[in-house]
Automatic annotation (TrEMBL):
It comes from Photobacterium angustum. This is Amino acid permease. Its main location: membrane. GO terms for cellular component: plasma membrane. It is a multi-pass membrane protein. Keywords: Amino-acid transport, Cell membrane, Membrane, Transmembrane, Transmembrane helix, Transport.
């Protein structure tokens, strides 16, 4: 077996990457964020799970019939080179911005041990340090990241599954109904707005497809890992968040920086809180490592397509885009410093988490939409399978629902950025066509 093959990951590790990317990044602060909407978010979860499974099917089908290294970036490029360029930019920046939210979550749980991390500047320093630690780990290769991610998934499952199963003994239906709609808006508005929050939990559904170049037998492994990871994460998400919604007043959960430590303390006693905080923090950080691997792969694909500077595509003997990873970490560091400077001194981790994840999800919506559109194109060209096209259509509608639920100003900013990218594409295209004209004239 060659050294390259030995560093590739199999089905269990790949499923761990998919589920771990979702759960490590999506679940830890989610009860606190959803408490600001209410337990009515159960309907948001149902919508989101249907949409996420549709997206999982899209990526599983594409990985089987039309495998492309780079996932959403490659699939958007097949619809149109302009969309491929746009997706490369959007997807890449969505990932590293989302990574910062994961790091903030991990540091928030560490505050159980180190109360100083409740202060803005120490928390920012710890967040930046965690980014660079896992950058170094990524430089060692994908096999290290997958091992850590699988370990993180196991650790975070302990308190979350414990809450999801045993917590029902502490569930109070009257409390659940009291927390039904805390958004101060209509029920329909609360449900739709919570879709964007819950969708963050499923960002990562494409993880296996993006990292297919680092997976053994990707045609079989990627589809199975994608569907299995989505189902595992979805079931655990719904059970654990709903039981917490029936255990405490929404205001108490919303103010908590470690909602699962809060829940397990009520279930098992105070002795459990440190263990839960440690497990969840480690799971967040291992997920951060896995997502950084994705950032490197996304940047490499964009560079190979000529849409990013060549430095993002430079790899070592193990296929790791070292310089791209370092550049992403530099950008995360700069953004964290900016957030620290401009945020108020009493900002909760859940508030920063909400802002960053909403931005990251909005930037991801177009790449997801283009992938679904590409499957419709591919099936129309080949099998013309109506069932597959139906699932692709559901995935498209789901993307529309998520965009409808966004804050108007955030949605407007995303729309402006998405259009502005075409200016740079036009410039690039103009240079390319100018060179072609010069070559024709010389010939």
């Amino acid at each position: 077996m060659s050294s390259d093959t030995s560093k590739k990951i199999g089905l269990i590790a790949c499923t761990g990457v998919v589920a771990g990317n979702m759960m490590g990044s999506g679940i830890a602060l989610l009860p606190s964020t959803l408490a600001k909407v209410g337990s009515i978010s159960i309907f948001s979860w149902i919508i989101c799970l249907i949409g996420a499974l549709s997206l999982a099917f899209v990526y599983a089908r594409l990985a089987t019939s039309n495998p492309q290294e780079g996932g959403p970036i490659a699939y958007a490029g097949e619809v149109s080179p302009a969309f491929g360029f746009q997706t490369g930019v959007l997807y890449y920046h969505a990932n590293w911005i989302g990574n910062l939210a994961i790091a903030i979550t991990g540091v928030s749980y560490l505050s159980v041990f180190f109360p100083i991390l409740n202060n803005t500047i120490p928390a920012a320093i710890a967040t930046i340090a965690s980014v660079w630690i896992f950058t170094v780990i990524n430089l060692l290769g994908g096999s290290w990241v997958s091992r850590l991610c699988t370990l993180g998934l196991v650790l975070i499952l302990i308190p979350i599954v414990g809450t999801a199963v045993i917590g029902w003994g502490h569930f109070d239906s009257a409390m659940y109904m009291q927390n039904w709609n805390t958004s101060h808006g209509s029920n329909s508005h609360a449900i739709v707005s919570a879709v964007l929050i819950t969708l963050w939990s499923f960002v990562g559904v494409e993880s296996a497809a993006v990292s297919s170049g680092m997976v053994k037998n990707p045609k079989k492994t990627v589809p199975l890992a994608t569907l299995l990871g989505t189902v595992i994460a979805g079931v655990i998400y719904i059970l654990s968040t709903q039981v917490i919604a029936g255990m405490f007043p929404a205001s108490e959960v919303a103010a908590s920086g470690a909602p699962f430590a809060l829940a397990t303390t009520a279930i098992f006693g105070k002795w459990s809180a440190p263990f839960v905080a440690a497990f969840t923090a480690l799971a967040c950080f291992t997920s951060l490592g896995s997502w950084m691997m994705l950032v490197g792969e996304a940047g490499k694909r964009a560079a190979n397509d000529g849409n990013f500077p060549a430095v993002f595509g430079e790899t070592d003997k193990n296929g790791v885009a070292k310089k791209g990873l370092v550049l992403a970490s530099v950008m995360m560091t700069i953004l964290m410093i900016a957030i620290t400077v401009f945020s108020s001194s009493d900002s909760h981790a859940s508030n920063l988490f909400d802002i960053l994840t909403s931005d990251a999800v909005l930037l991801t919506m177009l790449p997801y939409f283009y992938s679904a559109v590409n499957l419709i194109r591919y099936e129309g060209m080949t099998t013309r399978n109506v069932f597959v096209m139906l699932f692709s259509g559901v995935a498209c509608i789901f993307c529309f629902i998520a965009l409808i639920g966004a804050d108007p100003s955030a949605l407007a900013a995303t729309f402006v950025v998405s259009l502005a990218i075409f200016i740079f594409y036009a410039r690039k295209l103009g240079f390319r066509q100018h060179l072609q004209l010069e070559q024709q004239q010389k010939a």
